[in-house]
């Protein structure tokens, strides 16, 4: 029942019992009319002089939360009120569900307490509007007010562990490889390499060709700083997607977790890196305004982009793959492509990157294609592309999403 309905019902009861007393008389009718009048007066006092200027402030002990980990949230509640209150219930719409906190204010006007969120999956969340309830001792008359504090929360993916693999030449490239690249900073890249189909004839290195007897292609001087490109493919054609698991496709989640691992490794070794999510999945054009502002803030991190990564919602005949981001990278840099399987658009992108002089490595995460012969993969391998499988690392089980009160 709404507050107006409660007040109207109270007024009707007061008039009814007062009329009964005037018409019939008697102590019982007088007692009922007095009680109804007191209840109505109490409801009006609670409504008129209840809490005002309600402020909620939340504080988390980390700017970013790793998926699946527990997160402690500290809440501070402040309000103004001119009458003592017997009880209050603060209901918060957290990313893990509704949390209710029972308080006994009396004359206190400030409270702090904590609760714990667990089992959250990667993504961008925020607290929606909640409500603060208060009333009389019996709960006959209750009032509530909306509380607004849209606290954002970014849940980033867990970093994958580099798993072992029975196939030595296809084993996942681990942290040691990137560390070796770091130790070679300052070394200039080779000036030429063996000719590959599609290389412009204007870049043929004739002197080296005469010495080796094989056609050699000249490479322009590259930057001394080692850089790394990480591409997470979001095209639906790169994964075997079931309708029931659109959000948690294992192959895609492995790719995202592997990308997080590469980012951690590059930051640890102070190697410049670029992260791209291509294939039409996580464009910012269709996101809510608050998400766009949060993800484009000055404190934005590459892992925040992975938090929003998702497979394209529709199977596109030709996914859109940009190449202009390669202009920001030095020739000879390493590019790691993470996908479930290769499709035509991705193969074309890889060939383009190779022709531009980049070293490309493909890491596949779809278990179903591991033991299948694939002519496309063989052609890429012959072009100098390293191909590995990341199918041995099992995804960790996710806890149940829940919010738990941990006391004041």
Layout of helices and strands:
Layout (H helix, E strand, L loop, with lengths): L2 H22 L2 H22 L3 E9 L3 E3 L4 E10 L7 E7 L2 E7 L6 E9 L4 E4 L1 E8 L6 E6 L4 E5 L18 H9 L8 E3 L11 H7 L3 E3 L9 E6 L16 H19 L4 E6 L10 H7 L6 H6 L26 E6 L4 H12 L3 E6 L10 H8 L3 E4 L12 E4 L3
Parallel strand pairs: 2-10, 13-14, 13-15, 15-16, 16-17
Antiparallel strand pairs: 1-3, 3-6, 4-5, 4-8, 6-18, 7-10, 8-9, 11-12
Helix pairs in contact: 1-2
Q: What is the terminal separation in angstroms?
A: 32 Å
Task: Characterize the largest beta sheet: strand count, sense, and whether it forms a barrel.
Answer: 5 strands, parallel
Low-confidence stretches: 164-176, 181-189, 220-224
Total of helices: 9
> What fraction of residues sit in β-strands?
25-35%
User: Biggest sheet: strands side by side, in what order?
Assistant: 14-13-15-16-17
Question: SSE string, helix = H, strand = E?
Answer: HHEEEEEEEEEEHEHEEHEHHEHEHEE
Tell me the Rg in angstroms: 32 Å
Shape: rod-shaped
Count of individual beta strands? 18
Helix content: 25-40%
**Oligomerization status of the protein chains:** single chain
What would the average pLDDT be, to the nearest integer?
79
* Helix-and-strand structural type: alpha/beta
